[in-house]
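Appendix B. One record, verbatim.
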Amino acid sequence: MRKILSIDVGGTFIKYAVMTGTRSFKIIAKDKVPTPRENHEKFLAGLTEIFNNNSDVEGIAISMPGLIDTYKGICISSGALDFSNGHCLAEELNSICGVPVTVENDANCAAIAEVKSGALTDVKNAFVMVFGTSIGGAFICNREIYRGAHFCAGEIAPTFQNIGEVADEKNTYHYALSAVEFQERCAKILGMDSKEVTGEMIFDLIDENDDDMLDALYKYAHGVATKIFNLQMLFDPERFALGGGISVRQSFIDAIQDKLDEIYAVSFDYLPRPQIVACKYRNDANLFGALYRFLRK
């Protein structure tokens, strides 16, 4: 029986799980801690502490945002965790913890999990979108992650919404389509501090047909559907799998389907339409994907 420590680094929290198995794996312990954001040293110390509390494992599998050279374990560009840019995290943790370490982009991890045993087991080409602090993307070509020449393939967040506007962060999909941004917009509508508003609260109101929250959801879903349409024209995948905590709610998937209906109603008749599904592993997709990446090292 193998035992692996899988770590999912996010912009707000680090989720981790001890996973055991041989051919199939299950989570036997899981927790989360705030992501150290001060500097790389404290970030590394935070990861080390997680290992020290779960040191009876044979390896560490890490999922994290940014451009990752997964073959060398180097954080080329780590997004909000830019203090780690250029660091070989796999080598650093290996020298401290004494066990093998793999590092993979978080959206790629979600995609790997869904291809291996989730919502994409029966397709060859697919696209995964993960909604969280930012928005992540991964393109699956012939059941493998397509990484591109610079490990940048599938990166949705830095792409621009409107070519006629200023090329700054507010004009990117990182700003427009993150689940956190959607939550903050809803908080403003409710006249509440964003820290007091949860995704569960928003979607409970949506499921109760609250007009203001429904309007906010459909505006958000329009942006998601537009991006899906554009990605469909570029990559022509068979299926899109949507992940992150927000994908748990069927009303989110339904709103995107409705907005795609509107887009395709005014598009050329012959354009293909992909299937839209929720990721099977939802919030645990990155943990399982990081594990599967480790097992292939």
